[in-house]
Amino acid sequence: MFKVQFNLFSQLDLHPDLLRGIGALGFETPTPVQAQAIPPAMAGRDLLASASTGSGKTAAFLLPILHQLIGMPRGTTRALVVTPTRELAAQIAAELNSLARFTPIRAATIYGGVGMAPQEKALRRGVDVIIATPGRLLDHLSRPYGNLDSVEFVVLDEADRMLDMGFLPDIKRILARVPARRQTLLLSATIPSEIADLTRRMLKDPVRVDLAPRSAPASGITQTVYTVAQGEKTPLLVSLLESGEVQDALVFTRTRRRADRLAKQLVKQGLGAERIHGGRSQSQRTKALAAFRAGRLRVLVATDVAARGIDVEALGHVINYDVPGAPDDYVHRVGRTARAEQTGDALTFVSPDELGTLHDIERMLGNKITRAEKPNGSGARRTQPNGHNEDSTSNGAPRSNGAPQSNRGPSNRGRSSGPPNRGRSSGPPNRGRSSGPPNRGKSEGGDHGRQERAPKAEGTSRRRGVGSRRGTPRGRR
Ligand code: ADP
Ligand code: MG
């Protein structure tokens, strides 16, 4: 099959009245996401598109819907766009009004902070397109007039942000009110694993447009893979902590249930641990995070969604207790270390059934992650690097898209110029800064044990001395 290159909007076979609107907006050339998404979406296919912010995703979903709406009778709400914020809803409405200027298609916005009455009127009148934020839309749907029974096109815009903001349960409730026979378009800057999961249930055989920039972890991060049986993951973590190899760590699990169980197991072993995930209240999360930052806990166990909005200052270790389901999540997780000093360790525990996922991640990274050595077949020992490839210049180095480094020097690895206490307990000005949108403490839903697998109890030998390459104990003391 060959790929058609669309250099001009006029090549896209859009309705002439839409081409006029596009011209009036000053658009000439479709952006890459538009060129790839519009043709299949015009043909009625579901769509899963990821492309960075500012890449033109709005017109990528509006044009194919407007094109299909043009020939249909007015007076019925046939399209619904769900977006996380009222600002975005207003922007989408403005772009729609420009694109549809020479068509009879009309749109209305529905979001909070303004009166319900005009929105109710638009719904009753059957405005062609509703552009809504989830909360206010659900308010309307709880009224007698509120229904989406005639909707044929649904757009979930900025899906990753909606997820971060805790809108997943709302979205599920909204979609339950839309006929199953519909075209669904999902757009997002990134496709984290929760969205990948979501799409399996919400989209039908979607066309995938994947233009999200492939990021790589900061170059100063040492990445290591431990191949370990599922049932040996906890003993391995305990032994890393007990040997001092790992002083403190943010540990990621795939599900809430696994986070709960791991934290419990660590506490039982006398290791201070707490967990944060979507099933914990905001105050529980805040408390856990504060205790970890203050050094009262050595381990914070987290799920991806819970960790996304937080920023723990200059962590020494990130441990993937479970391999993340989506390659992007790997980069996100690993990026939690090496913030300040640009150095850090990312350890990934990989059970045999997770090898396929690991290979996907390595394909994205463009290289193989260093395997920890396994002496006498029982313990996982980290390969002792020879020190020749010591990287002492990574401080403050910009993030690079190059291959992540592994196997840097054995001891303090050029850390001497960094703050000795890793900036946790003496209060650097940027401690606790939050990157990303505030997590509103709503449920992240979905991951409640869904992918849970029973750990296999194989080989119970305790590990000893999982490597003592760290001469100087570090951490928050
Ligand atoms: P995204 O949703 O991907 O973040 P937007 O759809 O908001 O991006 O588009 C970003 C900006 O680019 C907007 O100002 C939009 O008007 C403009 N834009 C979109 N498509 C084109 C195009 N084909 N040519 C020129 N400008 C465009
Ligand atoms: Mg957008």
In short:
This protein has 15 helices and 14 strands. It has helices spanning 16-25, 32-42, 57-69, 86-99, 117-125, 134-141, 159-164, 168-176, 193-202, 233-242, 256-268, 282-293, 304-308, 327-334, 355-365; strands at residues 47-50, 79-82, 107-110, 129-132, 153-156, 183-188, 207-210, 221-227, 249-252, 273-276, 299-302, 317-320, 344-350, 370-371. Helix 6 (134-141) packs parallel to helix 8.
Give the SSE map.
Layout: H1 16-25, H2 32-42, E1 47-50, H3 57-69, E2 79-82, H4 86-99, E3 107-110, H5 117-125, E4 129-132, H6 134-141, E5 153-156, H7 159-164, H8 168-176, E6 183-188, H9 193-202, E7 207-210, E8 221-227, H10 233-242, E9 249-252, H11 256-268, E10 273-276, H12 282-293, E11 299-302, H13 304-308, E12 317-320, H14 327-334, E13 344-350, H15 355-365, E14 370-371
Parallel strand pairs: 1-6, 1-7, 2-4, 2-5, 3-4, 5-6, 8-13, 8-14, 9-11, 9-12, 10-11, 12-13
Helix pairs in contact: 2-3, 3-4, 6-8
Residues 57-58, 157-158 line the site of magnesium ion.
Envelope shape: elongated
Strands side by side in the biggest sheet: 3-4-2-5-6-1-7
In CATH terms, what is the fold-level topology of the largest domain? Rossmann fold
- CATH hierarchy class name of the largest domain: Alpha Beta
Task: Let me know the CATH homologous superfamily of the largest domain.
Answer: P-loop containing nucleotide triphosphate hydrolases
CATH architecture of the largest domain: 3-Layer(aba) Sandwich
Note poorly predicted spans. Answer: 375-477
Counted beta strands: 14
End-to-end distance: 60 Å
